[in-house]
Amino acid sequence: MADFQRVRLALLLACALSLVGCLGVDKANLASQVDSSRANATDARPIDGGTPASAGNASAGAVPHKHDYWKGKERVTVLQDDITLSPTNATSFLPLFDQRPALGAAFLALPDGQIVYEGTGRLEFTATWSDPTITGLVLRYKSTGNPDYSQPEPLASGRALAIDVAPSMTDEPHAKSSRWGFFLEADGTGGAGLADGKVSVRADIVKMRDIETFPAHPDLFAGAASVRVFDKDVEIKSESSVDNAKGFFTHSQTPPGFAPEKPVPPEATTLLVRIDVKSATSNMPAEDTSRLRLQYRTAESAVHYEAANLSMQQGKTYVFKIESTPQKGDGYYAKTSAWRFDPFLKDNVQGNEVDCDFGDCFDWDVEAHLTIIALKADADPATVLAT
Q1: What is the DSSP string of 94-111?
Q2: 187 near 104, Cβ under 8 Å?
Q3: Handedness of CA 12, 15, 16, 22 (dihedral sign)
Q4: Kind and range of the H or E element at 198?
Q5: Residues 213-250 pLDDT 10s
Q6: Burial environment of residue 328 by CB neighbours within 10 A (0 to 12, 13 to 18, 19 or more)
Q7: Which residues pair with 312 in a beta bridge?
Q8: How far apart are CA 194 and CA 103, in angstroms?
Q9: What pTM did the predictor assign?
């Protein structure tokens, strides 16, 4: 009996040491179940649905989370518009610079607030036209990952052109406007081309990848009440006709102005822009910078510029004050800023006041130091810039 008990005790100990096997559960299967539960826990991260003002998204930003702007859809229309192409507008001659016998072109951008979502694997661009004065169209495009326009792709009316979208080509989460751009122009590859008429355009993005988990929102202020996003010497000059022609040749559409060296935090409420003029030459009276002005573009728009308010001027030091909101700030994960700051001189030669935006009226060249400070709360410009 004692021997039987010893044998029984040994079997129980062996069973305890290999409990999984004794219970009839496959070890490999159990491991896979554990891994699966961990994966499901990761997938259960908070979801930011693209409405940063909501309390849910505010709490999601404090921990690792995902950004699901698709809202259950597999396809989203990001651009839909009716445009008119003409052989007489400013952009109509661009095909000629490529030595293509064609007239008629237009630049297109996604509407403010619309981006190419993470997870996009394909973008489909469709142009539809029926006017006989449109002999054919081609499309160039640029993306977040590549700021240079592509080679022209031929379009057929009503038929979508499929563009493969790599992960690096999508806009980052929390971006307020898209870095994508399109250039529609007359097709002159088979002879003289003309685009003179109405075109309906549409762009759809197709979800083909899973969305990833992003880290918690970084503190772009690094615990401080302000951050200098730009602080360096600059040259402010008008663009000559040669520069503009070069831009046409290269299809360069670089936004006018200086880009901050750091992103503008979404929490910024005020930006102070200080310009310390060192020297200036122009076809105005020498050293006359009394009409130095500033226009700027926020991250909210890929196109529209606004005039900044001159808050203070002392000698050749100019301070402009710009109000900001979370919608105007850069995204939390932005690698570069979408803001642009474009100083320019306002001409009043012979008493005729002319706004010379983008350097269209006369020549100037200003050497200056440009300082841009983003603030969490409103502050007196003189106090902040003195520190």
Answers
A1: HHHHTT--EE-EEEEEPP
A2: no
A3: negative
A4: strand 197-207
A5: 999 999 999 999 899 999 999 998 875 444 444 444 44
A6: buried
A7: 319
A8: 5
A9: 0.72
End-to-end CA distance of the chain: 92
In 3D space, the residue among 290, 272, 288, 292 whose CA is nearest the CA of residue 231 turns out to be 272
Residue 198 has pLDDT above 70, yes or no: yes
CA 234, chain centre distance (Å):
24
Are residues 306 and 295 in contact, defined by beta-carbon separation less than 8 angstroms?
Answer: yes
Mean pLDDT of the chain, nearest integer: 77
- Enter the tokens of residue 281: 């030459």
Label the pairing between strands 197-207 and 161-164.
Answer: unpaired
Residue 63 · residue 46 · CB < 8 Å: yes
The two tokens of residue 386 are 């003195």
Q: Is pLDDT of 25 > 80?
A: no
Question: What is the token pair recorded at 21?
Answer: 């096997």
**pLDDT (average), residues 202-214:** 95
Spatial contact of 341 and 230, defined as CB atoms under 8 Å apart: yes
Q: Name the least confident of 152-156, 178-182, 215-219, 282-286.
A: 282-286
- Letter for the amino acid at 338? A
Distance CA 167, CA 164 (A): 10
Using DSSP bridges, classify how beta strands 193-194 and 102-103 pair: parallel, antiparallel or unpaired.
parallel
Question: What's the whole-number mean pLDDT along residues 34-39?
Answer: 30
The answer to whether 317 and 385 are in contact (CB under 8 A) is no
